[in-house]
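Page 47, continued from p. 46.
Same chain as before, 156 aa.
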Amino acid sequence: MKKSTLILIILTAAAASFFAVVFVPHHPSGNAKSVVTQQLGTNSSALASQTNTDGTVQVSVQPGDLQSSEWTFAVSMNTHSGNLPQDLTQSVTLTDDKGNKIALLRWENGVPSSMPDHHKSGTFVFAAPASKPQSITLTISNISGVAIRTFSWNLP
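Result:
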């Protein structure tokens, strides 16, 4: 076998492996629950960010200030297979530990939530509840074939 043929085979195998790792979506195998990872916030009082990798879209949520009259949640979504056209304000709910829905006030920053794109980021702003709950759950529905993505935090 010629040296140039061997090099071509090695480069082709490396390119195929790179493509499979970066561009092929990875689906959870038979697990109905969402896959969520948490990363610690930048300071000890911050709640951990969470990332869901179900389907072909990665969704990350970082709670912001939960001490003011408006609670914020920074959201970023990334995909390499199609656009993210849905109006996120119609797909998100925030509930407390008693099941009460907390009112969504607006979507801020980033690309308007209704614009199609491969990458979206912005901030959901909710009205702070009258009394501080023990825990909260942010739910984002119907993104790229995943019915529900759930992000939950216990509040200090």
